[in-house]
Every structure is written in structure tokens, then in C-alpha cells.
Design goal:
This protein is an alpha+beta fold and 894 residues long. It is built from 27 helices and 34 strands. The protein has a nine-stranded mixed sheet with strand order 25-24-26-27-34-33-32-29-30, sandwiched between helices. A seven-stranded mixed sheet has the order 1-2-4-3-5-7-6. β12 and β13 form a beta hairpin. The N and C termini lie far apart (67 Å).
Length: 894
């Protein structure tokens, strides 16, 4: 092995320290004694190490698995793949082929397709147990789901232990998925007494690839850069992926943040199964920085979710002793109780903790390819796989040995529901949304997917405001999901530990911009007997009005812009050739049901502007796809406000959007914006890498979108082209650092304060080295909701329900005073922090700063926002501000 240069070592240590301080990655250890001795010796050459691994891989699987008596009729991974595990990065189709072959050959194995990814790849559950258990799986699953029901007083003492093994939610952390092949083979083929005991007493569910699209993307990357002679240099292209990494899914989302939000089919399928099986133990196998070792939970004690029972931590520590024993036997380095936390309810190791499962995060140092130098020596891909296998085996051993404790914990977890609900000192939450039932139903669907029961009000209820029947629901705390309910509506702003691995708030009421409040006493509430979503207790099956059949009897059709489906409906109608207007001011018109008030933003389909006689058929077809409330207007003369022929009735044009992507732009935010437009508006934007913009004719587009990213004075040519684009009538949207750059280039005329300048407001004098992490926690805003006040007369706010909105903030860049009048769309309130953590110094500066400004520039407009309105595709409220810029941006003026 070549000796590491001092400079490389120093860089590696610095990089490793940065990784730890950011609490992003960590590492796992375990491999064979033979492998350890080969890699430990400083005199061992890279070539001899590779030769040893190649020989071992060619020979058999004993490098990975115990040398036991295996059933020869069970196919090995090598017999199906055509290569030994670890020689190549396995593709998802190869995983599927192997597991289906395994299911056919073994009576211990059932393979079930639980869904499909965005790219139509099968999502598998591989269920392994004794043949006797296999015939009982449906009954066991039903009993598991029923066990947690409100009035079920049974215990699970006699039921089998359920262990759910989950691999590689990040596609480029592929050692887990590759390890799943070996784990499944071992459990299906081994004739050891230990395995037979496991299968008799447990049902083991393997999800071999939580992110099949990302896994396949990375397998292609790693394999296409592999030569006959492996290159371990970290600078090699193999170890440095392009902008779209294997970590993310089809739309470039981190699926390990989607366990709660359920915006993607991979997560939706997984949670459907999870809620039925409710496993006792769930593992989540990841990778971290190459210079790390191996991590297993528990994490940092002060950073667990406050609603996670303390007994959960105790049992996690109990299982950790088995992991430690396994790695000690191999003389491998590992660490625990540092760097990672269990706070955010939407990631793989925390979501189970709020459900009575023991969620365990494993982090293996990543070779991020086939072979890479590290401060611990050369790290090869087979070794990373072996470590994931070892940690899986230690999980099975520890779970089997702790079965009684794990079952007792779930019994206690279930029985504590009423106590926890009572300790909360309020009865539940009431939610309402009167103007946008589509957005409200999206939230209710999400809650129902997590088995949270909501009941429709059968009469109006007065609390801080009046909650109306037909537009409100009540969510009682006294139900099995009381912990999750309190978590997703938490408004906590003070925490024992202010350093967060992920966000500090995920309040779904704020995300969806839904009115909600605590109900101290529910005695006066009258609600439906059945929960929302049960049988006919639904509010999402709207009947589209169809009274406008004869063109001669209809002057105009008005479309309610409040509905979240309205932009998609309008885009489709424009695409289908209909001519549309939008009201920039409110009006009252005569309809088939008498006079009716219409808000600014209402879209009009005027009969006199349409081409041909079949426009009503076109409209009806669009309404069948996107049901939105409509009204037939009988005359162009309004009783109040503007008439239908007013100059304040602005023509609508179909947006054609160019979005800046590529190196330097925020991969997640570009993906989130793409997903928003593709899913909720009905088109995919044109995404162009920033370094290719000089070859693109901006005149082909109506809008240019810059999400968060790195922009500087070096982007002078882009700045010049954007100015020309806006002068000629184009609309520019910039968010977060892009908005700050637009201001620096005077495309936006506003005072700013950067995140780095905000950091300087915190005094680091008289602090010790050990205070550095705590200071960083104070300086950052790690994902919190802030209250903003809207100018409801501004076109970008049309369709929103009221003048207050929660904006999700995870950077402290700020737009201060605007230099142009009438350009403030949203400004933070005097006391803006709603939920999550932010230091008082940051809150003070954020207060009354501008969150969104829109300014006329030539014949076009430039719009800047210091937050991401589409965060993780869950902020249905603020995303309307961005969507409005696509259809109403032309109305911006100063």
C-alpha cells in the first residue's frame, strides 16, 4: 500500500472533521480477519491487496458469509449475476432477477412487488421466515395491523418478531443493496441451527433497494469508470459524480427525508407496508465519508425526538452491544452516540421510533466506487459490503435474543396512548380551509396514509375563529398515533440542544397553509362517527358544474383561482387553444345562481374570444381532469367592480420556462421545482446547465428560473443576458442565493444582508474550541417556519386564502428595504418565528425583512425570494407564490 502523503492526510483529516461537525456522514466497520491483516500493513502493496480480494471473490462467498452448510439447491448471487458480489456494482434489475430466482427456489422466501418507482422499477419486499410461517404471512400481517388499533387490548407476546431490513435509500450508498443479496442468500440457504431459530421465531422483511432509480444511476456511473486495474485516487472521476448524483431519486429528491412527507411512490409504497407490519426493529443502512469508520446508533442523546420513549434508547443501546461484539471480533473501528441525531420525524431511523419500532441507523465508510484511498488505508467495495452484512447479522442476533424485551416495549408503547394524550393538556387539533378544498384534501390524504384519524365537523365550532362545517376536521389526540400527531403539528421553538442534523420543524399545518389550533376541550364538538377517508366520508369528489352546455346562453365561464388545481387546469386549457383572461381586480357578476362575488385572480373563458364551436367540449374535458369550481356568467356588465371587458382583465399566456441547473446550482431545489411543475402544473421545464446558457436563445422562453445556487461576478455574461431578457418582457424568478445575486447585479433593487454577514453578528470572543459546534448551531437556521404578511392586492398573492403565510427558512440571507415602491409581496412579521429553532439574534434581524419582492424591469419583471417556496414538495402554501409568477408575473409593475 502506498504511504499517504502528509498533505493528503491533512486534507483528509480536515475533510473528516468537517463531515463530523456538519453531522452528515459517518462510518461502520467490519470485515474478515484476512482482509484486515492485508489492509493494515503499511508495506502491503495496492496490487497485492487487489489480488487477494480477486482471488477470494473468484473462489466463493466465504469472504462475506460464515462457512456453513448451505443448501445446494438455492442459487447463489454469483450464479444469477454472473459475477461475485462486490466485483461490480449491482443494478436494480439484477437485484430483482436474483430475488425472484430466490423466491422460486426457496420455500423460506416470498417476494412481493409493493409498488413501482418513478422510472417504473419494481419495489420489492423479500419476506423470509420458516416454511410454516410463510403460509401464515397474511394472518400475521393482519394481526400486526390490528394490534395497534384503539380498542385492541391484545398483546403481541405470542406473535413472531418482525425485523425490517432496509438498504440504500441513497442510491450511491450502494454497499447496502449489494449486501442484501448475501443476507437473503444466507437466510434462505443456510442449514445452521441459528438460522433455523431465526426463521422460526421471526419474520424478516428485506427491502433491498429503497431507491432503485438512484441505485441504477450510480451503478452505471461506477461500473463505466472501472478499469481492469482499479484506481484508488480520490480525484479519479469514478469517485466524483456529475451534478445529478446517485444519491437522489428520479426527481432529485433525498428519499430519506420523505418518510413523513410521502411525495414519492417509493415512500408511499414503503409506508403502506410499514403501517401494516409495524416491525419491532427496523434498520436503515447508509454510507458516509470515505475517511470515517463505522457508525451505529444510538446517536447524540440530547438530539432525540422528545416524543420518542426513553425505553427506545435503552433498547437501542442493548442492541448496540451485539454490533460492538461483532465488530470487536474483527478488530474494526466504529463509533456511536455522536454526529447523528434522531430528531426529524421524516427520516428512516426516526419515523419508526415514533411508532413503537426500534429504528437503527448504520453508516459505513464509502468507497464511492470500487476502491479509494482513505486515512484508514485503501477502502475497497467488497469490504464495505461485508460490513453491512456483519451489522445485519448482529441485528438479527440481538433482536432474537431481545425478543421478549422488544415485544414488551411495543405492548407498553400501545398502552401509553391515553396517558400521553392526557399529559398533553389539550384534546386535539381542529383544522380548516374554506377556499381551497384541493389543498386541504392533500393534507388529509397524507394524514390518513399515516393512520391519523380526522373527523369532519357536523356543526360549526367557535374557538379563536369559527370553524365551519364542511370545511373543517377535528383530530383527537386520544388515538394510536398520538405521538406522530403532536410531532407534525408541533410549534416548539425552544430545544435542549440547538444543533440539528436536519430541519427543526416539519409542521404540516404551516406547510399546507391550513388554519389549525389546539382544542383544549372537545366536549362541545360535534363530529362524524367515521374518520375522513372511511367509506363516503370524503371531501375530494367534487362535482363539476356542467350547466354551460349551449354557447349561445353563456357569456363567460369563471374559474376559481383559489383551488390548487386551477393552475394545472389553466395550463391545459391554454395548451388546448382556449383564450383566457384573468381579473386583476375583484368584481361581482350575474350568474345562473344570482349575483356572485369573484376575487382577483379569477380566470375567465369568454365565449366571444374562443375559436370554433367546440370550446365548451374542450373546457369540459379539462375540467374532468382537473375539477375546479366554475360559474357561468350571463353578462359582461358587472354589478360591482370591473367589467369583463376591462383593461384590468389581463390576457393569460402559456408559460415556457427555462430553469438553470448544472454544477453550481442546488440539485435538490432544481428537482423540487421540476417536480412541482411536472406534478401540479402539467409540464416539465427546460433545464439547462449554467455553463451552456451562452448557447441558448432566451427569447424562446417566457420565464427564467434560478433556484438556490452559487452565482458571482464571474457570471457577468449571464447577468447581461438576463437584463436584456427582462427588458424585452421576460419574467425572472430567483430564490435564496440566486435572489441575493440578482440584487448584487441590480436586477433587483433592494438592500441585502448575506448569511455570512449574519454569522458575524454572533460574538465568538471568550469561547473555547469546544464551543464551536454550539456557536454554529446558533448561527444557522436549520429549517424553521416564519410568519410572513402578504399584500393581498398583489397579483402574486392571488388565490391564497388570507394575508398570513408560513415560509420555510433554512438560510439567513435577507432582502431588506426595497428601492422601488409597491414591490413588497411578503414581509416577515414583527414576531416571525412560528415553529422550529432560530436564535433570538437571527429572529430579530429576520423580523420585518422582505421575504418576496417583485419589481418591474423594462417590459418584464424580476422576482426575488429569500426562501425556497417548494421545499421538499410539501410546502403547498408558499408554492402558490411561485406558481403565480408563471401566470401572473406579467402583471408586476411599480
Amino acid at each position: 500500500m502506498a504511504r499517504l502523503k502528509t498533505s493528503h492526510f491533512a486534507k483528509s483529516v480536515k475533510r473528516g472533521a468537517a463531515i463530523l461537525s456538519l453531522a452528515t456522514l459517518t462510518l461502520f466497520v467490519a470485515t474478515s480477519v484476512a482482509s484486515a491483516s492485508a489492509s493494515a500493513s503499511a508495506s502491503t502493496t495496492n496490487e497485492s491487496l487487489l489480488s487477494l480480494k480477486k482471488d477470494r471473490l473468484k473462489k466463493d462467498i466465504t469472504f462475506f458469509l460464515p462457512n456453513e452448510n448451505y443448501n445446494a439447491s438455492i442459487p447463489t448471487p454469483e450464479s444469477v449475476l454472473g459475477a461475485q458480489v462486490g466485483e461490480w456494482h449491482v443494478r436494480h434489475d439484477q437485484l430483482v432477477n436474483y430475488f425472484k430466482a430466490l423466491g422460486t427456489a426457496s420455500e423460506r422466501v416470498t417476494v412481493k412487488t409493493i409498488g413501482r418507482s418513478h422510472q417504473n422499477r419494481e419495489l420489492l419486499h423479500v419476506i423470509i421466515s420458516s416454511p410454516e410461517r410463510q403460509s401464515q404471512l397474511d394472518n400475521i400481517k393482519q394481526q400486526r395491523a390490528a394490534f395497534f388499533e384503539q380498542n385492541n387490548r391484545s398483546t403481541n407476546n405470542e406473535a413472531p418478531l418482525i425485523v425490517n431490513l432496509n438498504y440504500s435509500v441513497h442510491g450511491d450508498e450502494s454497499s447496502g443493496s449489494n449486501a442484501s443479496l448475501l443476507v437473503a442468500y444466507y437466510l434462505a440457504a443456510s442449514n445452521s441451527e441459528t438460522v433455523k431459530k431465526y426463521l422460526q421465531d421471526m419474520v424478516i422483511i428485506i427491502d433491498p433497494s429503497l431507491n432503485p432509480d438512484g441505485l441504477s444511476r450510480f451503478a452505471l456511473w461506477a461500473n463505466q469508470h472501472k478499469g481492469k486495474n482499479l484506481n484508488s485516487d480520490s480525484n479519479n472521476r469514478e469517485h466524483n459524480q456529475d451534478w445529478i448524483r446517485g444519491r437522489v431519486n428520479q426527481y432529485w429528491f433525498d428519499l430519506n427525508r420523505d418518510w413523513l412527507l410521502l411525495q414519492h411512490p417509493e415512500s408511499q409504497a414503503r409506508i403502506r407496508e410499514y403501517q401494516q407490519w409495524r416491525p419491532h426493529v427496523l434498520t436503515d443502512h447508509h454510507e458516509m465519508g470515505t475517511d470515517s469508520t463505522f457508525f451505529f446508533q444510538p446517536g447524540i442523546a440530547s438530539r432525540k425526538n422528545p416524543l420518542t420513549p426513553n425505553k427506545n434508547v435503552t433498547l437501542t443501546k442493548q442492541l448496540a452491544t451485539y454490533h460492538a461484539k461483532a465488530f470487536d471480533a474483527e478488530n474494526k473501528l466504529y463509533f456511536t452516540e455522536e454526529a447523528f441525531d434522531d430528531f426529524y420525524a421524516g427520516k428512516g431511523s426516526t419515523y419508526p421510533d415514533l411508532h413503537g419500532s426500534i429504528g437503527i441507523l448504520f453508516e459505513q465508510a464509502s468507497s464511492r466506487g470500487h476502491l479509494q484511498d482513505s486515512i484508514n488505508g485503501v477502502l475497497d467495495f467488497p469490504t464495505t459490503i461485508k460490513h453491512q452484512v456483519i451489522s445485519t447479522m448482529s441485528t438479527l442476533e440481538g433482536s432474537w435474543a431481545s425478543a421478549n424485551d422488544l415485544k414488551a416495549f411495543q405492548n407498553e408503547f400501545k398502552s401509553n396512548v391515553k396517558k400521553l394524550a392526557k399529559e398533553a393538556k389539550f384534546d386535539g387539533y381542529i383544522l380548516s380551509e374554506e377556499k381551497d378544498q384541493t389543498r386541504f384534501n392533500a393534507l388529509l390524504h397524507l394524514l390518513a396514509a399515516h393512520q391519523i384519524k380526522a373527523y369532519a365537523l357536523e356543526q360549526d365550532f367557535k374557538a379563536d375563529k369559527t370553524y365551519k362545517k364542511g370545511a373543517s376536521v377535528y383530530i383527537p389526540l386520544d388515538q394510536p398515533q398520538t405521538r406522530l400527531i403532536q410531532s407534525v403539528f408541533s410549534t416548539q421553538t425552544s430545544f435542549n440542544d440547538n444543533t440539528f442534523y436536519d430541519v427543526s420543524s416539519w409542521n404540516l399545518g404551516y406547510a399546507f397553509d391550513i388554519n389549525f389550533e389546539k382544542v383544549k376541550s372537545s366536549r362541545k364538538l360535534k363530529v362524524a362517527n367515521q374518520a375522513w377517508g372511511s367509506q363516503n366520508v370524503r371531501q375530494d369528489n367534487k362535482q363539476v358544474k356542467s350547466s354551460f352546455v349551449n354557447a349561445t346562453s353563456v357569456y363567460s365561464i369563471a374559474i376559481d383561482w383559489h383551488d390548487y388545481n386551477a393552475p394545472a387546469l389553466v395550463y391545459k386549457m391554454l395548451n388546448d387553444g382556449l383564450v383566457l383572461r384573468t381579473a386583476l381586480k375583484p368584481f361581482t357578476a350575474s350568474t345562473e345562481n344570482g349575483e356572485k362575488h369573484f376575487a382577483a385572480g379569477t380566470v375567465l373563458v369568454n365565449a366571444g374570444l374562443q375559436n370554433g364551436n367546440d370550446w365548451q367540449l374542450t373546457l369540459n374535458q379539462a375540467l374532468q381532469q382537473y375539477p375546479v369550481e366554475t360559474s357561468a356568467i350571463k353578462s359582461g356588465l358587472s354589478a360591482k367592480g370591473i367589467d369583463l371587458g376591462s383593461r384590468a382583465m389581463m390576457p393569460l399566456t402559456m408559460p415556457k420556462v427555462l430553469m438553470v441547473g448544472g454544477s453550481g446550482s442546488n440539485l435538490y431545489e432544481v428537482g423540487e421545482t421540476w417536480y412541482l411543475l411536472d406534478k401540479h402544473v402539467g409540464f416539465s421545464p427546460t433545464i439547462v446547465d449554467k455553463d451552456r446558457l451562452k448557447y441558448v436563445d432566451f427569447d424562446e422562453y417566457t420565464h427564467i428560473v434560478l433556484t438556490d445556487g452559487s452565482y458571482s461576478k464571474k457570471d457577468e455574461a449571464l447577468s447581461k443576458n438576463l437584463k436584456s431578457f427582462a427588458k424585452q418582457g421576460g419574467i425572472i424568478w430567483g430564490q435564496k442565493r440566486a435572489a441575493m445575486w440578482l440584487a448584487s447585479e441590480e436586477l433587483l433593487k433592494a438592500e441585502t444582508i448575506s448569511q455570512s454577514d449574519m454569522y458575524k453578528r454572533f460574538d465568538n470572543k471568550n469561547l473555547s474550541f469546544g464551543d464551536k459546534e454550539a456557536l454554529g448551531g446558533k448561527q444557522r437556521v436549520a429549517g424553521a417556519f416564519f410568519n410572513a404578511e402578504l399584500d393581498m392586492t398583489h397579483p402574486l398573492t392571488f388565490g391564497l386564502s388570507d394575508n398570513k403565510i408560513a415560509l420555510f427558512k433554512n438560510r439567513t440571507d435577507l432582502l431588506l428595504e426595497s428601492k422601488l415602491p409597491f414591490s413588497t409581496v411578503a414581509a416577515y412579521s414583527k414576531s416571525p418565528l412560528l415553529a422550529g429553532y432560530a436564535d433570538a439574534k437571527n429572529v430579530e434581524k429576520i423580523a420585518q425583512a422582505n421575504g418576496l419582492i417583485a419589481q418591474q424591469y423594462g417590459r418584464g419583471a424580476v422576482i426575488g425570494m429569500t426562501d425556497n417556496p417548494n421545499f421538499r414538495a410539501i410546502t403547498y402554501g408558499s408554492s402558490r407564490l411561485f406558481i403565480n409568477s408563471l401566470f401572473l408575473g406579467a402583471a408586476v409593475s411599480n
